[in-house]
Amino acid sequence: MKRIPKPVFFIVAILILLFSYSAIFGVSYYVGDNKETVVKGITDIRWGTDIRGGVEATFEPDDGYNATDSQLDSAKSIIETRMVSSGITDYELYADYNTDRIIVRFPWKEDEKDFDVEAAIEEISSTAELTFRPGNSYAKTTIGSDGDYVYQTPTGDTETVLMNGSAVKKAQAGIDSSSQSSSKSNYVVSLELNDKGTKTFADITKKYVNQVVSIWMDDIMLSAPTIQEEITAGKAQISGDFTAEEATSLAEKINAGALPFKLKTASYGSVSATLGENSLVAMAYAGIIAIILISIFMIIMYRLPGVIAVIALCGQMGITVAAISGYFPVFNSFTMTLPGIAGLILSIGMGVDANVITSERITEEMRSGRTLDGALDRGTKSSLSAIIDGNMTIIIVAIILLLVFGPFNVLSFIFGQSTTGTIYSFGYTLLMGVISNFIMGVGLSRVMLRAVAGYKFARHKWLFGGVKDGE
pTM for the full model? Predict the structure, then answer.
């Protein structure tokens, strides 16, 4: 067995515990009465409407404008873009084409105390501003709920706005006519400009030939095409490695920035939590008690590997909470719903299972007469395939849930659009939990096992679940 330096055990264990503490409780300080958050913790999670309640609003075109179905889809798309870029996944969003209305429900912000309904609505319904800017530099990068990068806050020559959405007559997804003879369809987004926009765009394309001109919705980059040639006819194509859904989505977002009407709030109100924060507190206490009981069981049954398993479980919970709370700057706070909590609990169960399998295999090897080093080597290797099989199955299921019930709504016509954010939350926490189990329960726990076995006090088979030496 390959030996690992003995101090590695204490170094890894301390780092895991410090990380877990900071991920769960966060790091913050006060300047007077103002709280300054250094690292987000579990209290910074944006809780879903089922736990904390939220907002329900109905929007309609202002001044009695008779919007078309495609225009309503574009307005709906920009509302969805704003929610997704903010990490809001527990939402319901519908377009009623008969009455020209858009209905939306979404949860309160994680730091919202006064529950200002009007401010929450303004967050997602303000008029979208579409702009064309030179270059494609940005200040922040986050991950959207579909797993793709979201580029935010333009930098560089930010004062230069080459053109805005009023110059765009319409945008439409389609297939590149030049690719019809090939076996693969190349999807593009076609832009048609109005008279004023045609002249402006001609000047832009003449000046920025072979340079990037990015398209922004508010402070979110939608696309960053390179100008291939001067365009004077008022029609252009944005090409790239688009799927049909991606091209349609981009066209809808561009159209939303060029809408000839503003959205006004027809009605709004707050949504009461179906579960409530008191129930959340009770669940938290139940979870703490369950973890304590599991820890006691693991330590009694498996002794030293049980202690290491408890440390690994703490690290697993820390990584999962960090991926939800916004601990890592590249991730926004994720909306946590009741199904999301269920996914978290299930992933912890998978973590316990991985450590139990490893500990049992080590015990079996020692009872068959192997030395401590031989038992650790054989036990960890023989248990790996079983752990990978079980966890990979869960990962495949979680990815399917994310794809089916994520922003693409592949099967929403069967299950209903209201399932989108709810089931997506379950799949996300389950996936993050299983990935963290691989890191902690399969990776670092085995490093700690091999390292601690180098200490003289730990060279007793009984500490690893075997019989006492000499028996």
Answer: 0.61
